[in-house]
Amino acid sequence: MGRSRDNRRRAAAEAVVEAVEGGLAELIPDPDRARAWSLLIDGAPQSHVDLDDPAHLSFEYQRRIGHVIDLAAPPGKPVQAVHLGGGALTLARYTAATRPRSTQQVVERDAALVQLVRRELPLDPGARIRVRSADAREGLAKVPDGWADLIVADVFSGARTPAHLTSTEFLDEVRRALRPGGVYTANLADGPPLAHLRAQIATAAVRFAELALIADPAVLRGKRFGNAILVASDSPLPLAELTRRAASDPHPARLEHGAKLMDFTGGATPVTDTSAVASPAPPPSVFR
User: 10 Å Cβ neighbour count for 98?
Assistant: First the structure.
């Protein structure tokens, strides 16, 4: 107990706290990893980065997206990737580490956050990562047609996904920027009664031929608030390997696809720009 208390005191003393556009950003050192940090915005955990080992993914939802990145192309093959939402640039760093020579664009609206992360958690100079401070949908609109092998959406404002990133029109932009057979993956957050998550699956189903959803079984059953990872493509997805990896994680997840995933929507209606609303705010207990 004494050592744990000492670690907490050391972390508090070394934390970097700074106001950014999205709220109060905190970079908290990881007491178990020499050059690893967690990013919190207004107390909500956003990212974890290990500068010595960027292939290490601490957050469970990021590990699940990491599996998608691993399987989006043959192992080690460079990809062209777009990240909507940057945070501490964890997933862009992961892609650069596991797929050297990849070309990546990150769109992060919070310019002050980008400056903080670049200063305190500098990128590898050899990583081909371009960071643009812009709204995610506006930044995506500037990506050339068919440019991306992979698009990752992990955008939250005040712990909620903005409404204009939940619609069929938004997914039209995603499809336009993806090459044929490219992969789209998104971090979705919801809790009981899962109305937002069901509607997001229904929305993706009218724009993509192949879908999968990866989440903790308790989240899928509507027992608690949590993250779910959507994976979509016009080509067949590596379902067997995604299922195996999700199940073997430290926090095992379940993968749903096909008819069972369509049944999960419960007849939800696809979301359009005119009907879109932001994702629900998580209950305060989530971050305790």
Answer: 16
Phi-psi region for residue 21, left (φ > 0), alpha (ψ -120 to 50) or beta?
alpha
Structure tokens at 235: 């080509």
Strands 210-215 and 226-233: antiparallel
Cβ atoms 202, 269 nearer than 8 A = yes
List pLDDT tens digits, range 179-197.
999 999 999 999 999 999 9
CA dihedral sign, ordered 193, 199, 201, 202: positive
Closest to 261 measured CA to CA, from 200, 199, 213: 213
d(CA 267, CA 186): 21
Burial (CB count within 10 angstroms: exposed 0-12, middle 13-18, buried 19+), residue 96: buried
Query: For the CA atoms of 172, 147, 157, 121, what is the dihedral angle to 10 degrees?
Result: 170
What is the predicted pLDDT for the residue at 287?
53
> CA-to-CA distance for 143 and 90, rounded, in angstroms?
21
Report H helices in 133-194.
Answer: 136-141, 168-177
How far apart CA 69 and CA 79 sit, in angstroms, is 9
pLDDT tens digit sequence for 109-162: 999 999 999 999 999 989 999 999 999 999 999 999 999 999 999 999 878 999
Biggest CA-to-CA distance, the chain? 57
**Sheet (strand 16-20) strand order:** 16-20, 23-29, 36-41, 44-50
